[in-house]
Model the fold of this input.
Amino acid sequence: MLNHFKTAILLTLILTILTGLIYPLTVTLIAKTFFPYQASGSLIRKDKTVIGSKLIAQDFKSPKYFHPRPSVSNHDPVKSGGSNLGPTSKVLINRIIMDVQKLQKENPHSSIPIDLVTESGSGLDPHISIKAAEFQIPRIAKARNITQEKIYTLIKKYSEGKLFGLYGESRVNVLLLNLDLDK
Amino acid sequence: MTLSGIFQIIVYCIVLILLIKPLGLYMARVFNHEFTLLDPILCPLEKLFYKLCGISLKKEHDWIQYAQAMLVFNLIGVIVLYLILRLQNILPFNPDKFLAISPDLAFNIAVSFVSNTNWQSYTGENTISYFTEMLGFTVQNFLSAATGISLAVAFIRAFSREQTSTLGNFWVDVVRSTLWILLPLSFALSIVFIFEGVPQNLNSYVTARTIEGKVHTIPQGPIASRESIKEIGTNGGGFLNANSAHPYENPTPLTNLLQMLAIFLIGAALTNTFGRMVKDERQGWTLFVSMLALFLIGVLVTYFYEAHGNPLLKGLCIGGNMEGKEVRFGIVDSALYSIITTCASCGAVNSMHDSFLPLGGIFSLINIMLGEIIVGGVGSGFYGILLFAIMAVFIAGLMVGRTPEYLGKKIETKEMKMTVLAILILPLCVHCFSALACITTWGIQGPLNKGPHGFSEIIYAFSSASGNNGSAFAGINANTFFYNITTGLAMLIGRFLVIVPTMAVAGSLVRKKIIPSSSGTLPTTDLTFVILLILVILTVGGLVYFPALSLGPIVEHFLMINGKTF
Done:
């Protein structure tokens, strides 16, 4: 039994150095050398200041931008997580009803895609579905005083399809779209 | 439900099945000490480790020594991780100056990572330093998985060997699992993850000024190197709070697919390793087919309800249930992931199970309650299903009035006592702790949701802890003294009190002679056995858990379709 303790302590020490230090640091080194952009968080810079990450949603309130999905933490990147409200929660149902009413005023002619009124699992979902982007076209066109076709082409440009035409969902990155709108 | 959705599930299964044979063969060679391609690099390293630690390759352990070594190794793991958590404020690699973790939370986390549970009472991005992530969590992600694989291999040796007392050397099995299996797989997967966008750095958190002028702090860290072992080792504890729903942990449909494959990979391949080691691959495939059938039932039911959407929102908007799900994964990949992670004792989540519909989330709960034997956690799932297989031959033996045998080993009173004990510890633990939570104020303050869903949150918490899964109906506020201690104890009981009787069964079986099969032997490689095994699993699970399930998700479902909210 005592022998076990000696071996356990030594083996823990050695495997800690191997799997806790050598392994992650080697991966970090490779990442830094070959994929520096991804390794440092896919950050987007404008005049040298970081304006966000391609992968992390940010808040857009102005009518001239595409809006992301609602988020329980108001898109605060250090507070990731979902609402965790269950399907029979009054809070959830009332929240969705209120959001639906708001969106109906904005675009009374289309039905509302579910992702625009549900909070994502991370609260930082950088994407919206193509339908959710198209739903917002009339509002943005009006606010920017440009044609709807122009925005429609932009959505097409940034659409990402399914993996092998099968896995995941077609989607569009809100931040990239908005950056292009401002160009 | 769409055809393309069903097709995704089928393609996933096919890819998984194609991976089973090569990895199963490889692992069999690793544990039989036969030549593999990595030997030239790893053998010298292995020898060095043995020399430094005083491990003798020739000295084998009987079941008691094997279990003792495992317990001591895990005890040291808990102590080291606890100390790291308590001292992380003065340790290096802490650019964002996180404080030391409180004693009750540190106990919970240490037990959680060593027992391969990875229950998340912590919120990664604002409490855990990079030092803890790397030298604490990443290490235990490897070691707890290696422990599981070693135990499974020891259990397999109980069938492949005869008339001996030893089951192998625990230290050797741990070292070989880590060097030959876990490290190379994690390394390769990390690189793909980084390419797809998972960050890997030691930078402090980035401050960004958003387009509309808000100031954002964006977390960073060595995420990719932990992400890969998190799935490969069915650990599941997130680097970031949202786990694999977070775009940094799981940025694309490709990383999502790889994660789903990684979670099942070793557990599924172990069935083939088992078949090879007992010299009849069909034995392994039989177990796998039974698992696959149970898996598909769960996936299809979950997918059906989630795609159908919440009936309380009918007419308001179009689409399935997207609350708590990410657009890049959609309904199918979220439903599939939720079932894989709960079948496999992983506990990583790419969507919030708490927001699934009652009958969309019920199979996550059922999979955990059955003991995570549908593929299961690396190693633990495999010895779990072997216990059910022993139970199945025993029941069949009773029905026809013969002494039950499995793989030529007679199953007698002693083994049955230990098997039943190992199987019943889990439900006992789940029910006792849940009952305690329901009758105390500390417990009742936990759930976020009201009504039956709140009860589901409690029962899910203790099922997940006892079953060493680690996923949650995460609305529950688990970072309280009461929940940290109770779930911590549940994790210890669910892991180690199951392992001891399991190893006792192995120790008793390895001494027996392998009797050649005769006309009176129940074949364990045909459809009859598959059905028998599935029925035994469902009967045990059904009888034990049905009352709890009907008070939670089932009653919630009926209230929901009648328009009741809480």
Remarks:
- Chain A touches chain B through 101 residues (CB under 8 Å).
- Strands of chain A lie at 43-46, 49-53, 127-128, 159-160, 171-173.
- Residues 61-182 of chain A form one domain.
